[in-house]
């Protein structure tokens, strides 16, 4: 079950326009000032380790499934309208993201808050409301994966 979750989560991320490279770029953005000589490969390794976690795969599948149903108009009101508009007071998208941030401890929360505020790289694209796509859950999940991978990197990668 773990493998199929991991495989499907990666496939769905790609289908929704998010590659492992996009995620590695966010980690580089978050960590470049704290690690001398940080390489892109190191960022990518940490992203892959986070994606391999079962709870991370579960969060990705759940979030993307809801985003897709929202795009298709498949939810009932008032949920459909709240998710379509990415209503700020909804907040359950962030709770799902926290289950990812949590995997490597509390340092991840600082990174998550920072990246959610600045929305660099792929996060800017996911937040573009003019596309007709809905990424209400995915934008938080992507930020959370980058934050968790940054925590893993900062902790010396000993925790798996
Ligand atoms: Mg959101």
Question: Would you kindly provide a written description of the structure presented here, covering whatever features stand out?
Answer:
The chain has 160 residues and is an all-alpha fold. It has helices spanning 2-15, 20-31, 40-51, 54-71, 79-84, 92-101, 107-118, 122-126, 138-154. It has a single domain, classed as PgpA-like (YutG-like), CATH 1.10.3760.10. Helix 1 packs across helix 4 (54-71) and helix 2 (20-31) crosses helix 3. It starts with a helix and ends in a 6-residue tail after the last helix. The mean pLDDT is 93. Magnesium ion is lined by residues 86, 93, 136, 139-140.
Write the CATH fold name: YutG-like
Q: What is the CATH architecture annotation?
A: Orthogonal Bundle
- DSSP E strands, number: 0
- The sequence of SSEs as H and E is HHHHHHHHH
Q: Name the bound molecules.
A: magnesium ion
- State the low-pLDDT regions, or none: none
List the domain count as a whole number.
1
- Using only CA atoms, what is the Rg? 15 Å
Q: Which structural class do the helices and strands define?
A: mainly alpha
């Amino acid at each position: 079950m773990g493998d199929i979750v991991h495989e499907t989560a990666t496939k769905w991320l790609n289908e929704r326009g998010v590659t492992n490279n996009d995620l590695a770029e966010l980690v580089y953005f978050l960590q470049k000032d704290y690690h001398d000589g940080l390489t892109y490969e190191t960022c990518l390794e940490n992203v892959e380790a986070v994606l391999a976690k079962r709870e991370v795969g579960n969060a990705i599948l759940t979030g993307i499934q809801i985003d897709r149903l929202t795009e298709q108009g498949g939810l009932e009101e008032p949920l459909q309208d709240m998710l379509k508009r990415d209503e700020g007071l909804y907040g359950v998208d962030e709770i799902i993201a926290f289950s990812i941030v949590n995997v490597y401890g509390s340092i991840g929360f600082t990174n998550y808050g920072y990246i959610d505020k600045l929305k660099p790289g792929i996060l800017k694209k996911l937040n573009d409301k003019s596309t007709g796509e809905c990424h209400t859950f995915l934008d938080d999940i992507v930020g959370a994966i980058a934050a968790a991978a940054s925590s893993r990197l900062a902790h010396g990668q000993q925790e798996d």
